[in-house]
Amino acid sequence: MSLAPRAVLVHRTSEYEELLALHGTHGQAGFFLSSRGRSIGDVAERHRRARRILSEVTASVPLTWRQARVERADLDRFLFGPEDVVVVVGADGLVANTAKYLTGQPVIGIDTDPGRNPGVLVRHRSRDAGRLLGAATSTGGSFDELTMVEAVADNTERLRALNEIYLGRPGHQSARYRLHAGADDDASETQASSGVLVGTGTGSTGWLRSLWQERASRLALPGPADPRLVWFVREAWPSPTTGTTLVEGVLERAEQLRLVVESDRLVVFGDGIESDALELTWGQSVRLGVADARLRLLL
């Protein structure tokens, strides 16, 4: 007997809740914001709207389904199942934060702040949640299959991301490593830089694009479904022992970028979640390339 579908509602603590946790009361939080030229009213209203939308989505889950909720900070401890339908209620970045923990489950993005969020990944409104849940489990459901990037260390630890993976020193200080690019690692260079970024077409609207624009790169950035990645070295430093020749490139599906650590400690994390990172020490290596898994985002 198969399990009934489970709707997993992913949300995050609001700015208002964070302010209350820090300052204790609504009044104290309001005083703090007013000293910085902001109004507590706007922050509280966005909180109320997000909670109302979360409640509306919860009420839309069919009675025969199971339900679970998970806050963003607990994603790395939550066990997603194959029968889950993941409903991300929040901003676009929350979809990216969730994607790295999934293995093909359908995802529905519900926008809690239309007009304020770009809506690239949270494409739907709470009023449509019931219909969308049905579509996610039907054979006729239409999905975008978004490319993800994966890092695999030589000790078999791995990490996936929807936008980009960063490799470098904690705090973004200068990192030393040997970079191997091209077929069979035929191009290599020892570098000192503030890190390496490898990302997808989805990530090409954010951090990757800023690097691409800054250096007037001629690389063609991929689209979200393109099975290729782009990579950039941040602020490579020339010296008698470190080079700046291999600072950007494209990775097709079968290609990988390999880095061998020449620092006491480097970290690898995805989509800005530094708390969930791989830690590498001197002599370890990591390969970065297109992940086998993709994000299945409901159209």
Automatic annotation (TrEMBL):
Protein name per UniProt: Uncharacterized protein
Annotated organism of origin: Streptomyces achmelvichensis
